[in-house]
Amino acid sequence: MPHLLLLGGGHAHVEVLRQWAAHPLPGWRVTLLTREWMSPYSGMLPGVIAGLYQPEEALIDITALTARCNAALILDRATGIDPRRRRVQRAQGADVDWDLLSIDTGATPDVGRVPGAAEHALPLKPIDALLPRLRGIFHEAHPGQRIAVVGAGAAGVEVALALAVRLDAAITLVAGASGLLPGFPGRLRRRAGQALAARKVALRSGRNVTEVAQGAVHFDGAPSLPAESVIWATGAAAAPWLAETGLARDARGFLRVDACLRAEGHSHIFAAGDVASFGAGLPKAGVFAVRQGPVLAANLRAVARGRAPRPYRPQRDYLRLLSLADGTALGTRNGLIFGGRWVWWLKDRLDRGFMARYQG
Ligand SMILES: Cc1cc2nc3c(=O)[nH]c(=O)nc-3n(C[C@H](O)[C@H](O)[C@H](O)COP(=O)(O)OP(=O)(O)OC[C@H]3O[C@@H](n4cnc5c(N)ncnc54)[C@H](O)[C@@H]3O)c2cc1C
Q1: CA 288, CA 15: separation in Å to the nearest integer?
Q2: Which tens digit of pLDDT belongs to each residue from 21-42?
Q3: Fewer CB in a 10 Å sphere around the end CB: N or C, the chain?
Q4: Is the same domain home to 283 and 210?
Q5: Which numbered atom of ligand 1 lies nearest the CA of 320?
Q6: What is the arrangement of strands in the sheet containing 329-333, beginning at the earlier edge strand?
Q7: How far away, in angstroms, is 42 Cα from ligand 1 center?
Q8: pLDDT tens track for 161-188
Q9: What's the number of domains the chain is made of?
Q10: Whose CA is nearest to atom 39 of ligand 1?
Q11: Do residue 280 and residue 209 come from a single domain?
């Protein structure tokens, strides 16, 4: 029986599995190879940190989802892909053969560029390891504890605010040279700045971090920032093992895909989500992985039946919602800015709706 191997239990693959459960493809065997039996939904993670959700509300039970579509589940870490032999190597077991491969393994933290970050900072990515790591910080928390969150994109801002709600700690958000919420409209950035000030989250911007050491974050030409805990929320990097696969990659190491989400030059390998590099490059945001899910599911089915896949057309703008961790949120779309309790209500409704699709 031909074999479809799904590598990584990310946001696009949970949709592939859901659709496979609803409409199985006779004559095909499906396996999911992923690291964790619970796949976290990133949109709700800051809410979990703030105590607005229980952890299980933000986790998709991969074991149950694969069982619903009669797929096999291998819990392991992929360490390599051999496209010629159609094989995936893994950390703890025999290689897995496939006829059709789809990769949705996300991104890794960008800790390699700053000395000491890998040793002394706690990265937000991969998100499947985030909650267990944060538990350590919660456990050791004490009044006045100094926490630095490095990286002031959407995830960094949401996590800093969530920690400020959850802990009696002195929190600093390190925005670096690009400032608070780069790429967001000015009015939203100002409102987020006000929300941080109201929660007594200090903001450091203007200088990039040059080194992370035990107990401190260092800058070039600016005083060091003492911090017992450092959370690393800067951009995403590609997993190093992708370099060995021989698959085409962009300048940052992510897998180049064509218009139909196929790995360039490989008709039987697909990639979606953060791991994939589409066109001139899409933001590394879960919303793209989610929107690619249905196209990926349709294309895997088409290729399995010997038919042509269809192109994926990314949306030009997308709704960006930021939880302020206090029952309100900020949002932006097509240049409009909005905020308040109803925006949190909307975000909560969308996030819970997403989870309901996969939690059975
Ligand atoms: C705190 C936080 C909040 C965020 N909030 C938002 C938000 O509100 N909206 C938004 O659009 N984006 C948000 N993001 C970004 C979002 O998390 C990512 O863009 C999204 O998770 C990418 O989805 P993905 O499917 O590509 O990969 P992931 O969700 O990262 O999933 C990858 C999967 O692959 C598995 N895996 C990885 N490597 C291997 C391997 N070698 N072998 C086997 N399995 C492997 C992992 O276990 C995981 O199951 C947030 C990020 C963070 C850190």
Answers
A1: 13
A2: 999 988 999 999 999 888 888 8
A3: N
A4: no
A5: 9
A6: 320-323, 329-333, 336-340
A7: 7
A8: 999 999 999 999 999 888 999 989 999 9
A9: 2
A10: 105
A11: no
